[in-house]
Design goal:
2 copies of one chain form a homodimer.
Chain A (H helix, E strand, L loop, with lengths): L9 H8 L1 H15 L6 H10 L6 H12 L6 H20 L4 H5 L11 H21 L3 H24 L7 H26 L4 H28 L2 H4 L5 H4 L5 H8 L3 H12 L7 H11 L2 H20 L6 H15 L3
Helix pairs in contact in A: 1-17, 2-5, 3-7, 4-5, 4-9, 5-7, 5-9, 8-9, 9-10, 10-16, 13-15, 13-16, 16-17
InterPro entries (chains A, B): Isoprenoid_synthase_dom_sf, Polyprenyl_synt, Polyprenyl_synt_CS
Organism (chains A, B): Salinihabitans flavidus
Family (chains A, B): Belongs to the FPP/GGPP synthase family.
Chain lengths: ~325, ~325
């Protein structure tokens, strides 16, 4: 508790405060991802689960439960549940089509074949399902079932919406909730529910996770057009080359004149990209203030997250979750 | 109730008796597979769900609940749950790898790409999850969570076991439970649980579904080596050409001498098949009585199913489920 918080990133400080709980989560994840009979399962999951990542989602669950005063054992089950769902969706995102490979897109499943990615993902989903049933809490099951449906529907929606210029900001939000925010909001909400928090607190936790997830994804989309490759690990224009209709482009398309619209149709819908198209896209984005408007949206979602969290009882964890919402947008602010 | 049962197949007679319940199941399936936002979802599921199939699994749930005297609404939810899980696993089985396509194996997902098969399958899983949560019955959720894990683990196990001559009958049974029997047994078991049946009845329903599913799959494997293509719709030797280690081959491998073992290694493990290999495989299967022994196993599992069902209260539905266990093995008896 005596860490120098000023020099520490919020998720690192969270990880330090929650380290005992996180150890329990990691032990549970290791125990449940094992399979007595199918050695392929730990082979596939090990590089995903051991690599660790930031474990942001399980930390959200643990923090939410603790903020609401929980001292039972099941926040650990729910945190592991959320991480398993996240890992399963990563595996299913790894599935690629021959045509996609042929287009020269980097394939995510170089290590494992499609079939293993699908089936091991299914295994992790079923493991997460067992973990949540163990909590014996029907409301938690209801929340996670609905989140699963939102995630799957958003992922399917993205298949058709990503290259369709009719995709508007409403559809974009549905896709973003599916890709990111639905699991964030379920992660925080179930933490409150398992702690027996009142309805207003549970709603605030949902709102925080939802807004944080949306801010997170919008920042990601924005950095694809204006990030520093060294800091983001992404090349500028990756989304553009993959013909993904993200928020900056949706905003520019909404304000496009006939000629500009024809440009977006050619490069996004038809995929006939030529030398210099990315530069022209950036010109159009700047002309319509699309990057600034996208940045404003991200800041506004981060502010919503902060406002929601401020209604919860004051604590060090609450302070860190508020700091996290600032941190998520700091890269574009 | 006045149908001429003697001239009717058991599953057709079940379908007739349960027609009101099945209408409710079909209406629920149609309502829940819809998606307001993602039109790709009904496009993909329509051909699977409307084509109908025999709807064997949901009928097992309905019949089990009715045999145990249930008159509430939730057997319909559970029947739809079971059908959604079945359809989702079919979609995930559709996912293929480029290498598999190159080997000239017929691809199951000609209509839809891998990504759609995975994500729409996930959507159906999440829909099934919502349906079972609506029953508010934690024991049902526990059974279905465990069945999901058995299914996924069996499917992954099959990836590595199917071409490995060390695969024995124990491993084969695990794979078969994953592919078929775990969903059959969960289908019947949850029907009893939702009806509030006592432990012995629930166990009998589980045993019936488990044994029926195993008999069903063994018959399928056997027909691949000795079926009439006109009746089965399968060519003799499909599994052999796909290098699948099914029960007849496992039995022949267990009794193989050195030369025979080398043959199986070449054709199954290494996949270097030549003209005349299928005939030689059939010779070896006959030499060791492997087809007869496989048939005996199927009959023995069907008998187990029958014995389990006979412990339940007598009724027309019970008679039909007993007839169903005979019918499943009639093709090889």
């Amino acid at each position: 508790m005596s860490l120098d918080r000023a020099a520490t990133k919020p998720h690192e400080a969270l990880s330090a405060i929650l380290s005992e709980d996180m150890d329990a989560v990691n032990a549970l994840i290791r125990a449940r991802m094992a399979s007595e009979h199918a050695p392929r399962i730990p082979e596939v999951t090990a590089h995903l689960v051991n690599a660790g990542g930031k474990r942001l989602r399980p930390m959200l669950t643990l923090a939410a439960a603790r903020i609401c005063g929980y001292d039972g054992p099941y926040h650990v089950h729910l945190a592991a549940t959320v991480e398993f769902i996240h890992t399963a969706t990563l595996l299913h995102d790894d599935v690629v089509d021959e045509s996609a490979q042929r287009r020269g897109r980097p394939t995510a499943n170089l290590l494992w074949d499609n079939k293993s990615s699908v089936l091991v993902g299914d295994y992790l989903f079923s493991r997460s399902f067992q973990l949540m049933v163990e909590t014996g809490n029907l409301r938690v099951l209801d929340i996670l079932a609905n989140a699963s449906a939102t995630i799957a529907e958003g992922e399917v929606l993205q298949l058709t919406a990503a290259r369709d210029l009719r995709t508007d900001e409403d559809v974009y939000l549905k896709v973003v909730r599916g890709k990111t925010a639905a699991l964030f909001s379920a992660a925080t909400e179930v933490g409150g529910v398992i702690a027996g928090a009142d309805d207003a607190q549970v709603q605030a936790l949902f709102d925080y996770g939802d807004a944080l997830g949306i801010a997170f994804q919008i920042v990601d989309d924005l950095l694809d057009y204006q990030g520093d490759p060294k800091a983001t690990g992404k090349n500028v224009g990756d989304d553009f080359r993959e013909r993904k209709l993200t928020l900056p482009v949706i905003k520019a398309v909404a304000l496009a004149d006939g000629e500009e619209r024809a440009f977006w149709q050619r490069v996004i819908e038809k995929g006939r990209q030529e030398e210099g198209d990315l530069d022209h896209a950036l010109t159009l984005l700047h002309r319509h203030g699309a990057l600034e408007a996208t940045r404003d949206d991200a800041l506004s979602w981060a502010a919503k997250a902060k406002t929601a969290m401020q209604t919860l009882p004051e604590s060090e964890l609450r302070t860190l979750l508020i700091a996290l919402s600032d941190y998520v947008v700091a890269r574009v602010n």
